[in-house]
Write a structure and sequence with these properties.
This protein has 420 residues and is an alpha/beta fold. It has helices spanning 2-25, 44-58, 80-90, 103-117, 149-162, 176-191, 210-218, 230-242, 259-264, 266-271, 286-296, 309-328, 333-344, 354-362, 407-415; strands at 28-34, 68-74, 95-97, 122-124, 142-144, 167-173, 195-202, 223-227, 248-251, 274-280, 349-351, 367-371, 374-375, 388-395, 398-405. The chain is globular and about 60 Å long.
C-alpha cells in the first residue's frame, strides 16, 4: 500500500512539474510598442519599467496559469506600423500593447488579422488619440487605459479659464495626436466663451521656436496652451523667458517628464506668470495605497513618482488585461473583448489590485476592478473617463499637484458641439 501511495505521489509530482514547465514554455506573449528613439525616446525606459513592474506582480499568480512575457520594441526609428507587424506576425504576440498615434495606418491589416487568427488583444494607454467610434468590440478589441485626448485637451482649456484667461493662443506639434488635441482645445475654449487669438503649428525636434513664440506674444494673450512633447515645450518656455515674456503657459502630460524642466530651466519657468501641466491623478482608495507602497519599494521607483499619469495608467491597464484573460478562459482577443467590461465594471465584488481580482475570479466570483486612477466604466467603443488635475514643477526633479479639475464638466465640455 505504501509503495502504491508513493507511486501516486511521484506521479502527481511529475504531472505538477510538467504543468509548470508547460506554462513556462507557453507564456502569454505581450508585444509592447515602446519608444526609445525620436522625439519621445526619453520615455522608453520609463514605459518599459512601468510595464515590467505591473507584469511582475501579475506573474506572481498569472492568468490561466501562464506567465506574461513582454517584448519591448522601439518604434521611433522603424515606425509604429512596421514594428506592430513584426510583433504580431514574427513574435506571435497575444497582446499588442500601447498602439499610438499611427494606428490608423495599419488598422485595416490588424483587424483583418484579428478576424482570422483571434489575436492580438489591443489594450492601450495611448488609444485616446484614435477616433472615439473605434474599439471596444470583438471585431476591434481595443480598450483605452486613459480618457480621450480630446477630453484631456478640454481639461487644459477649462483650467486656463479657471485661472482667469479669456484670450488664448493654442500651439501644437505637427503630429496627429497633438493636432487632435489642438482642435479639441479650440472648440472647448470657444464653448467656454474664450477668444482664440490664433492656433499655431510647430515642427518637432527643432532647436528654437522663437518666431512662433514671438507671434503668440504679439497677440497679447492671457494664456498660451501648448500640446507638444516635453523638450519642445521646454524650448518654448525658455524662448519666452529669453524674449522677456511673462505669460501663463498650460501644457499636457508629456510635460511631466524631467526633460521639460531640464530644457526650459527653472529660471525660465519661474519667470512666467505660471506654468501648469494638466494630466491625470489618482483616487484616494485602497488601490492607490497598495500601488504606492509596492511602487516605492521597487527598483522601478527611480523612473517616476508613484503619482505619474503614465505609470498609474499602465499598471491599471495591464491589470485589467490580465484579469479579462482569466475571466475569458482564453487569450482569444475576440472573447477577451467580451470580458473586459465584466471585470472592470459593476456588478461584482469590488477589488483594488490584480492579486485581489485573480483570487476572486479563481474562487468563481464576479469582480469590479477599481483602479489607482478610479473606476473603468467603459463605453460601447472602449472609451473610459479619468480624474484630471493640474501640476507644476517645484524643481528640476519634483512636481506637485496644484488643483483638481472637475472630470464631469470636462466630459460635458468635450461632448459639446462647436459654437457657430
Amino acid at each position: 500500500m505504501q509503495k502504491l501511495l508513493t507511486s501516486f505521489g511521484v506521479a502527481a509530482a511529475l504531472l505538477a512539474g510538467t504543468a509548470i514547465a508547460s506554462a513556462e514554455e507557453n507564456p502569454i506573449k505581450l508585444g509592447h510598442l515602446s519608444v526609445h528613439t525620436g522625439p519621445y525616446g526619453h520615455f522608453g525606459p520609463h514605459f518599459d519599467g512601468a510595464s515590467d513592474f505591473a507584469i511582475g506582480l501579475i506573474n506572481e499568480n498569472p492568468p490561466l496559469g501562464r506567465p506574461i512575457q513582454a517584448f519591448h520594441q522601439d518604434w521611433g526609428t522603424l515606425g509604429e506600423g512596421q514594428v506592430a507587424r513584426r510583433l504580431v506576425e514574427q513574435e506571435g504576440v497575444d497582446i499588442l500593447y500601447n498602439i499610438s498615434h499611427n494606428y490608423e495606418s495599419y488598422r485595416d491589416w490588424l483587424l483583418g488579422f484579428v478576424a482570422q487568427n483571434g489575436r492580438p488583444a489591443i489594450p492601450s494607454v495611448f488609444a485616446g488619440s484614435q477616433r472615439v467610434e473605434w474599439g471596444g468590440t470583438p471585431e476591434e478589441p481595443m480598450f483605452r487605459g486613459s480618457p480621450m485626448d480630446t477630453a484631456q485637451a478640454a481639461a487644459v482649456a477649462q483650467h486656463a479659464q479657471s485661472l482667469g484667461a479669456t484670450r488664448v493662443v493654442i500651439i501644437a506639434s505637427e503630429d496627429s495626436g497633438m493636432q487632435m488635441s489642438q482642435d479639441s482645445a479650440i472648440k472647448a475654449a470657444k464653448v467656454l466663451g474664450m477668444e482664440v487669438l490664433a492656433d499655431i503649428d510647430i515642427q518637432t525636434e527643432q532647436t528654437s521656436y522663437r518666431s512662433e513664440v514671438a507671434r503668440a506674444n504679439s497677440l497679447n494673450p492671457d494664456a498660451i496652451l501648448v500640446f507638444s512633447q516635453a523638450e519642445e515645450g521646454g524650448i518654448i518656455v525658455k524662448n519666452a523667458a529669453e524674449m522677456g515674456m511673462s505669460v501663463l503657459f498650460l501644457g499636457e502630460p508629456n510635460w511631466l517628464a524631467e526633460e521639460f524642466p531640464r530644457t526650459a530651466t527653472m529660471g525660465a519657468i519661474n519667470r512666467q506668470k505660471g506654468v501648469y501641466i494638466v494630466g491625470y491623478t489618482h483616487s484616494d482608495s485602497p488601490a492607490w495605497d497598495y500601488f504606492k507602497e509596492k511602487w516605492e519599494a521597487s527598483d522601478y521607483a527611480r523612473l517616476s513618482p508613484a503619482g505619474d499619469s503614465y505609470t498609474m495608467q499602465m499598471y491599471d491597464m495591464l491589470n485589467m488585461t490580465a484579469l479579462a484573460i482569466e475571466a475569458a478562459g482564453t487569450t482569444d482577443a475576440r472573447e477577451w473583448a467580451n470580458h473586459v467590461r465584466e471585470v472592470s465594471m459593476a456588478p461584482g465584488k469590488k477589488v483594488y489590485s490584480y492579486a485581489e481580482g485573480i483570487a476572486a475570479l479563481k474562487a468563481g466570483e464576479d469582480i469590479d476592478y477599481e483602479g489607482v486612477t478610479g473606476s473603468y466604466d467603459y463605453t460601447d467603443t472602449g472609451v473610459v473617463s479619468g480624474q484630471f488635475a493640474a501640476f507644476s514643477w517645484n524643481s528640476p526633479s519634483e512636481w506637485e499637484q496644484t488643483a483638481l479639475i472637475d472630470g464631469t464638466a470636462v466630459l460635458e465640455l468635450d461632448a459639446a458641439p462647436m459654437p457657430e
